Amino acid sequence: MKFDTPATANPIDRGRVVGIPHDRIDGAAKVTGTAPYAYERHDVAPNAAYGWIVGSAIARGRIKAMDLRDAEAAPGVLGIVTHENAGPLDKGNMNTAHLLGGPQIEHYEQAVALVVADTLENARHAAQLVRIDYTPEKGRFDLVAERDGAVPPQGGFGGPADSRAGDFDAAFAGAAVKIDQSYTTPDHSHAMLEPHATTAAWNGDRLTLWTANQMVAWGVGEMARTLKIPRENVRLVSSYIGGGFGAKLFLRADALLAALGARLVGRPVKVAIARPQIPNNTTHRPATIQRIRIGADSHGVIDAIAHDVLSGDLPGGGAETAAQQTRLLYRGANRLTTHRLATLDLPEGNAMRAPGEAVGLLALEVAMDELAEACGVDPVELRIRNDVQYDPEAGPQRPFSSRKFIECLRQGADRFGWARRNPKPGQVRDGRWLIGMGVASAFRNNLVAKSGARIGIDATGQVVVETDMTDIGTGSYTIIGQTAAEMLGVQLEAVTVRLGDSRFPVSAGSGGQWGANSATAGVYAAAMALRAKLAEKAGFPADQALFEEGLVRFGNQSQPLAALAGSEGLWAEDSMDYGDLDKRYAQATFGAHFCEVGVDIDTAEVRIRRMGGAFAAGRILNPKSARSQVIGAMTMGAGAALMEELSVDNRFGFFVNHDMAEYLVPVHADIPEQDVLFIEELDDKSSPMKAKGVGELGICGAGAAVANAVYNATGIRLRDYPLTLDKLLHAGKGSALA
What are the b/e assignments for 69-86, b being 16+ CB within 10 Å? Predict the structure, then answer.
């Protein structure tokens, strides 16, 4: 099925199952410990051996020699994989560095060996006995030091490196009010609950991977390419994934080394990347240096806006596209955005929840707060004045498919009690706490991708859906089940959903906020095909048949779906592909974040008192799980504002705080109250579901709302994230903290 014209009335609009809050259909399996995660597949590999990864102790250079004798002689050791015995390997198109290093070393903690043993403890002990002699080389680890050599990135996610409209320089020079500031964000770690993990087994020349991977079809292709084997010889299963946030979009060392280890020792092998290895071995969100210039009239109406972004990555890597939202969010006839990429020898930078916008809005929305203050305009009103109903770079010929941005701002402000905010910083006290409120806009592009599914019904009326779509904790199982139930007119309890197996039809996968909308649209397409088959068997016209209560009806006639399925059942398969609506219409999700903080008058400790947000993201497929997605993302935004930072050792080129003890993330006590409002919206140009993504929107702008609240509380404007108390104390002279 192809979606190339706006959606009209369809079965999803009935809203009997879709759009209603539902508990997760996989929830019971998760809370009872029966949901099989990648490292726990004892059912399929009861005799699995254990692998432990040895990571490089240098960031750049070569392996001079490896002494494996003590490790090989250690108790329980079955074999050791290195570059010398791994066989010929390629590199996946989506990996910047090789997953198995040697002799060349590309970054610190790059996997250089896998020790396989009969127990985890024996593998870990033997890994400590591996002796490696290196020839280190000088590395590039400091983004500031490498900025002069930065270049425009080639290709990659987010469109062209630069964009221009009008004459920014002239318009900015003549503006009545100017903002020109720089902002920095540090490297971030995904810090998901489940580590990267894989159980691998060979059957002859065929490989099966039970792994944690967000994109099943991508993983199959990348593994086949890396091992130089036919794609059809690889099966990948990711039934349950304990969080990813982009870290598991691509093949990682656990999967490759588990496969190599299993091939070496002739039995299944399971590998998990140890938590202290993850930040340096896998990927992270790169640090940025951002300069924002805004020129406006005295009323705050923007005429000129520019956003310049610098980030770094390994050779061949990509940029953090932090100016994406600036191309589309606010009005202004004269515009400029640039991205520059420096070469660094730090571990690979890559996608993390809302790549681009998450850190871009940390800068842009603080700049907008500064503009509001410079113009004497309320920050909510300033954003309303600068709303635009079309792509401001392309012009009115490319309108937004839907844009309820102003509704988010107004309804969110009313719900939060924004009118009680004192616009003068440092004026509100509650005992020893300085109190402030902040606001920031939320924006995330709406992306869609081709997605397929297979759906069947048996003689008992039970419906089964199969697709390689993954559930990374987002609720995919449930919304896919809801879609099938709505389309076929059955109860949700009558639907069984099977996900994450490469034997199933290829889906959009989980990433980029495209998963829910795209995957359910694929189920919609398959269900339409099954409806046609059922209607044909009943002798009813498919376009007039009504599916409800387990029956197909036409006029005063009806037949049970179970009877039509027959003893052999009935199946259909289809996919949803897309035309050019996303080119004819700008498509995005919008929101408004609000935050109230308290700042201790003596210690400068920042405490979030409450957070709120209003969001417009098309049809909300399951308000219960969607709310969970948004408050989780808001929590990550709060972490980015106040505490999250991978600290770089510029001497040796690695992230020092590479565990959960030292890489700080918010805990329950940090987030006391969160309120979420979904604005009613249907986007008929997005998909037949009339939905959009929501999983990443909540992080976009959340941290800036915290930062703006801190300023309102203290009068201290920090532009270097995270906003830690030492920075507040250092900058506090002359402020309410003094």
Answer: eebeebebbbbbbbbeeb
- Whether the CB-CB separation of 229 and 221 falls below 8 Å is answered with no
Whole-number Å distance between alpha carbons of 515 and 470: 9
What is d(CA 453, CA 235) in angstroms, rounded to the nearest whole number? 17
Tell me the CA distances in angstroms from 442 to 330, 513, 592, 633, 703, one per residue in order. 12, 14, 5, 11, 10
User: Cα separations (Å) of 641 from 118, 351, 644, 707?
Assistant: 44, 19, 7, 7
Quote the CA–CA distance of 465 and 183 in Å, as a whole number: 47
Q: Read off the pLDDT of each residue in 620-628 and give the average, rounded to a whole number.
A: 98
SS3 722: coil
Amino acid symbol at 209? L
Residues catalogued as catalytic: 696
187-234 per-position pLDDT tens digit: 999 999 999 999 999 999 999 999 999 999 999 999 999 999 999 999
Q: H/E/C letters for each residue in 625-645?
A: HHHHHHHHHHHHHHHHHHCCC
Q: Which residues contact 359 (CB under 8 A, 6 or more apart)?
A: 185, 285, 288, 290, 320, 322, 640
For residue 36, the tally of other CB atoms under 10 A from its CB is 17
The H or E element containing residue 335 is strand 334-343
Instruction: Tokens for 89, please give them.
Output: 């390997």
Q: Which residue's entry shows tokens 């995919």?
A: 476
The CA distances from residue 639 to 187, 438, 458, 644, in Å, are 13, 16, 48, 5
d(CA 48, CA 51): 10
**What letter does residue 282 receive in the DSSP assignment?**
S
pLDDT per residue as tens digits for the range 230-255: 999 999 999 999 999 999 999 999 99
Contact between 282 and 208 under an 8 Å Cβ cutoff? The reply is no
pTM of the model: 0.97
Burial grade of 583 (CB within 10 A; 0-12, 13-18, 19 or more): exposed
